[in-house]
Amino acid sequence: MTPAPRRTRLRPTDLLRLGMIGPRTRRMRSALSALGISLGIAAVIAVTGISSSNQAHLLGRLDRLGSNLITVAPGNGADQKPAPLPPTAEKMLADIAPVQQVTATGATKAQVYRNDLVPTQQTGSLTVLAARPNLLDVLHATVRSGRWLDTASENLPVTVLGDRAAQRLGVTAPGERVWLGGQWFVVSGILAPNELAPELGTAALVGWPEATAHLGADGTAATVYLRSHPERVPDVQAVAAATANPAGPSTVAVSRPSDLYTARSEAKNALTGLVLALAAVALLVGGVGIANTMVVSVMERRGEIGLRRALGARGGQIAAQFLLEAVLMGLTGGIGGLALGALTVYGYALAQGWPATIPLATTAAAPLVSVLVAAAAGIYPALRAAKASPTDALRSA
Question: How far is CA 28 from CA 25, 32, 34, 319, in A?
Answer without folding.
Answer: 9, 6, 10, 23
